[in-house]
C-alpha cells in the first residue's frame, strides 16, 4: 500500500507490478469481457495493493470522448429536480456511463450560470450533458460538448427548434387546475406566477386561456411569483390583502413550493382559500398539507431525457433533426382545493 507521501500510482505502475500490458489494465478498468477471469483478478489485486485510484480527469484528457455524463440542475432548492435526477441516473449508469452531478447556477450573490462548473465539465470532455430545469441560454452548454449531445429536460419550450427537449405540457397542466377549481364553484381564481422564464410564461398562458374559456376573463388576476416558497408567500399576502369581491377564493400557484408559501400566508391571515400547486413533490402529499397539484410525470421526464441523451451520443435515429418529447401531466386532487365557499 502506498503512503501519503508517495506519488500516486499510475496504470503503468500497475501493469509493471502485475506483469501485464497497460492496454490490458485499461481493459480491466472498462470491465471488458476480453480479459480472462484469472488475469482480471491479478490486476485487481495489484490495484488494491498499490492503492490505485482511477483518475477521471487524466483519463478524459487522454481521449476526445469518454463515458462520463454531466447532469446539471438549475435549482437545487426545488425537490422536483431531484425526482427527475433519480429517474435519469440509473438509465445512464445502466448504459455504462459515469454520472457527475452539479448545480447549473452560481451562488445566489453571483447569479446566472456557473461558468466554472461548465468549464470543469468541458475539461473532462464529458460525452454529454443532461440539463434539468429552466436555464437562460443554451449556448454555454452546447460549447461544453462542441455543439452536440445536450438534452434539456423539464424546462420551457425555449430550445425546441435548436436542441433536444423533453418537457411537460405546462399550459395544459395549469388549465386542468383552473377546470378543477371552476368545478368546485370558484370564479375568483388568482394565479401566483409569471416569473421563472418560459415555464412561468407557459403556465400563465394556460391559466389565462382556461379562465377565458370558462367566461371568467374579467377575473383574470396574475400576481407575480417565481418557483420559491418565499415568493409564493409574498404573492399570496398581496392577493389575500384585497377586500370584498377583489379577494380571490382560490390561488393557482406556479409550483408546489410557491403553494406552500401561499398556505403559510393564508394561515397567518386566518383566510380560507383553495390552493393548488404544480410538480407533485412528495412533501405536498403529507396529510396535513394535502396539496392539490399537477403531476408532470417527473420520472417520465427523467427517463425520456436520459434515453434521448443516450441516443444523441450514439447518433441513432435522429436524422440530423432535434427531438421534442412532450410529457402529458395529470391532475392530483387532494384536500387543499376542496374547501367550501
What does this structure look like?
The chain has 341 residues and is α/β, with parallel strands linked by helices. It folds into three domains: 11-54, 434 Repressor (Amino-terminal Domain), CATH 1.10.260; 68-168 and 298-328, 3-Layer(aba) Sandwich (Rossmann fold); 170-295 and 331-337, Rossmann fold. The protein has twelve helices and twelve strands. The strands form three sheets. A six-stranded parallel sheet has the order 2-1-3-4-5-11, sandwiched between helices. Strands 7-6-8-9 form a four-stranded parallel sheet, with helices on both faces. Helix 9 links the parallel strand 6 and strand 7 (221-225). Helix 1 crosses helix 2 and helix 8 runs parallel beside helix 9 (197-213). The chain starts with 10 loop residues before the first helix and ends in a 9-residue tail after the last strand. The relative contact order is 0.12.
- Topology order in helix (H) and strand (E) letters: HHHHEHEHEHEEHEHEHEHEEHEE
Helix-and-strand structural type: alpha/beta
Radius of gyration: 25 Å
End-to-end gap: 73 Å
- Low-confidence segments: 1-5, 60-65
| Biggest pleated-sheet summary | 6 strands, parallel
- CATH homologous group name of the largest domain: Response regulator
**Count of DSSP E strands?**
12
The name of the CATH architecture of the largest domain is 3-Layer(aba) Sandwich
Q: In which range does the helix fraction lie?
A: 40-55%
Strand content: 15-25%
Q: Spatial order of the strands in the main sheet? A: 2-1-3-4-5-11
Question: Can you tell me the overall shape?
Answer: elongated
- What's the CATH topology name of the largest domain? Rossmann fold
Amino acid at each position: 500500500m502506498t503512503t501519503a507521501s508517495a506519488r500516486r500510482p499510475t496504470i503503468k505502475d500497475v501493469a509493471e507490478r502485475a506483469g501485464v500490458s497497460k492496454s490490458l489494465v485499461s481493459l480491466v478498468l472498462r470491465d471488458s469481457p476480453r480479459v480472462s477471469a484469472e488475469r482480471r483478478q491479478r490486476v485487481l489485486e495489484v490495484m488494491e495493493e498499490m492503492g490505485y485510484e482511477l483518475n477521471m480527469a487524466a483519463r478524459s484528457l487522454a481521449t476526445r470522448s469518454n463515458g462520463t455524463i454531466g447532469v446539471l440542475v438549475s435549482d437545487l432548492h426545488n425537490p422536483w429536480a431531484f425526482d427527475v435526477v433519480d429517474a435519469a441516473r440509473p438509465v445512464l449508469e445502466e448504459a455504462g456511463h459515469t454520472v457527475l452531478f452539479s448545480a447549473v447556477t452560481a451562488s445566489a450573490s453571483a447569479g446566472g450560470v456557473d461558468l466554472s462548473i461548465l468549464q470543469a465539465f468541458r475539461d473532462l470532455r464529458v460525452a454529454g450533458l443532461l440539463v434539468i430545469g429552466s436555464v437562460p441560454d443554451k449556448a454555454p452548454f452546447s460549447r461544453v460538448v462542441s455543439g452536440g449531445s445536450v438534452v434539456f429536460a423539464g424546462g420551457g419550450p425555449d430550445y425546441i427548434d435548436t436542441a433536444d427537449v423533453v418537457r411537460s405540457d405546462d399550459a395544459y397542466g395549469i388549465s386542468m387546475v383552473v377546470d378543477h377549481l371552476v368545478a368546485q364553484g370558484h370564479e375568483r381564481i388568482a394565479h401566483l406566477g409569471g416569473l421563472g422564464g418560459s415555464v412561468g410564461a407557459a403556465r400563465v398562458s394556460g391559466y389565462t386561456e382556461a379562465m377565458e374559456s370558462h367566461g371568467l376573463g374579467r377575473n383574470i388576476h396574475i400576481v407575480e411569483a417565481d418557483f420559491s416558497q418565499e415568493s409564493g408567500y409574498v404573492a399570496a399576502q398581496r392577493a389575500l390583502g384585497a377586500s370584498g369581491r377583489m379577494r380571490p377564493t382560490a390561488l393557482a400557484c406556479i409550483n408546489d413550493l410557491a403553494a406552500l408559501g401561499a398556505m403559510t400566508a393564508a394561515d397567518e391571515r386566518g383566510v380560507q382559500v383553495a390552493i393548488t400547486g404544480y410538480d407533485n413533490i412528495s412533501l405536498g402529499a403529507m396529510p396535513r398539507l394535502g396539496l392539490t397539484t399537477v403531476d408532470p410525470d417527473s420520472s417520465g421526464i427523467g427517463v425520456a431525457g436520459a434515453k434521448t441523451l443516450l441516443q444523441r451520443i450514439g447518433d441513432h435515429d435522429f436524422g440530423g433533426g432535434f427531438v421534442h418529447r412532450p410529457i402529458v401531466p395529470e391532475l392530483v386532487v387532494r384536500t387543499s382545493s376542496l374547501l367550501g365557499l
